[in-house]
Design the sequence.
């Protein structure tokens, strides 16, 4: 089986589908990043979010926050204001949670070596309960304080996206130069050797079935400076 051809077919199939997100389109702040990845034959994105401030009502049963079962009182990909949050909170019947979520980017990779240039992690988030059983548990002054923090995180998140885009673009350009100046036979031999080595170290993480965050030092930035991203290697039985 020609795995490269299979990956291309899978990529075309996935990218031809309608955007399943609530918004129905890619967020403006990550359009260039998504296009950069989808323009490379070894990658494609399956979902993304540039970052957002959301207010969720998880109902009155006290269960953990699960977005698919929550009432979305407010969602914005831009900085928000206190009045919008206060108005949205009046609709809460259970435990309302104010959250900031940074960049989320899910990327499918053709093989392990393609994933190794993507190495980013982050804890740049915010999650604070505001109501309990529909009753507001904090002051408006505190809500205003939280919104300022959330908006600051939103602005910092945008800067991190720009830095990540620039670092990724540089890494991909460097990889392209390296690939074009390296004999194809040597590349194939190196890839096969890499797969064999991985199998010897851990049979359960065989080539084509490996999920990783990546660990290439060329793109790796300090943990406090980069957004979140998950990378999945092209599976054999997608």
Sequence:
């Amino acid at each position: 089986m020609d795995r490269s051809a299979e990956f291309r077919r899978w990529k075309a199939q996935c990218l031809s589908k309608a955007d399943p997100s609530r918004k129905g389109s890619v967020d403006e702040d990550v359009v260039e990043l998504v296009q950069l990845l989808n323009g490379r034959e070894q990658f494609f994105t399956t979902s993304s979010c540039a970052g957002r401030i959301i207010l969720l009502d998880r109902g009155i049963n006290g269960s953990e926050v699960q977005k698919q079962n929550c009432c979305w009182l407010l969602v914005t990909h831009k900085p928000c204001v206190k009045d919008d949050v206060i108005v949205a909170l009046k609709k809460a019947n259970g435990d309302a949670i104010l959250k900031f979520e940074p960049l989320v980017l899910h990327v499918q990779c053709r093989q392990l070596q393609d994933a190794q240039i993507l190495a980013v992690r982050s804890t740049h988030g915010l999650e604070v309960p505001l109501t309990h059983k529909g009753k507001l548990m904090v002051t408006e002054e505190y809500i205003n304080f939280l919104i300022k923090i959330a908006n600051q995180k939103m602005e910092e998140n945008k800067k991190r996206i720009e830095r990540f885009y620039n670092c990724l673009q540089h890494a991909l350009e460097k990889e392209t130069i390296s690939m074009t100046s390296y004999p194809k036979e040597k590349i194939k031999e190196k890839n096969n050797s890499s797969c064999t080595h991985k199998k010897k170290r851990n049979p359960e993480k065989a080539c084509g079935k490996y999920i990783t965050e990546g660990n290439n030092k060329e793109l790796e930035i300090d943990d406090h400076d980069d957004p979140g991203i998950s990378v999945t290697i092209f599976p054999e039985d997608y």
Summary: The helical segments are 3-15, 31-38, 82-89, 112-115, 140-180, 184-201. The CA atoms of residues 110 and 234 lie 5 Å apart. The longest strand covers residues 43-49.
